[in-house]
Specification:
single chain, 224 residues, alpha+beta, Beta-Lactamase, four-stranded antiparallel sheet, 6 strands, 49% helix, 16% strand, elongated
Amino acid sequence: MKSQEIVHYLQNNPQFFEDHADALAEIYIPHPQGGRTIPLAERQIFSLREKIRLLENKLGELVQFGEENDAISEKVHQLSLQLIASNNLPRALEVLYDNLLESLSIPTVALRLWIDLPNQGGPEFSPVTQEIRDFAANLVTAYCGTNTSFEVIDWLAEQTDQPINSVALIPLTIQEETIGLLVLGSDDEKRFNPEMGVLYLKRIGELMSTTLSRFIPATPPEDN
């Protein structure tokens, strides 16, 4: 009989193991780590222990991911509280940079805005090409990936001497209109990779967008 035929027979005749329990106890097979043979029952125990070890490792990873997510969630929560408490744009920008650079340990951060706000100044309002504006407007959510040829790399290069090997680009939107781009950069090419989740990046973008909306002067109603 061929080996596959034996497997098929045993799968379809489970009573075989009851009818020949003594024979099974006398079957010895190679140890998975080599060097000797062991009873079939011991081999099954070894397999179960290996499965348990893999499950324990997986559980440990899940616990670690959960703890890391809890820590990030708390930091984003603190960022939101501080942004809510900010009573002017300079203070809101200071809060954003401090939390991203210090609390969330982002190596370098840049922000560009192309909306009319009172008392504009600083690099946040430096000219931005139409190409970047169109790119930001077409982002459905945050983009993560390796170094690109976009001018955003130059924005980050102004902040650090380290190479920029990965970036996260977060569009800032108010009432479905893209009004800016928040850029995070790292010399670690795996820090912002295409496979990573972007939930917290998306939330940071929403928080900053909502904060900015508070500082846009209200448009006076038109006279009838």
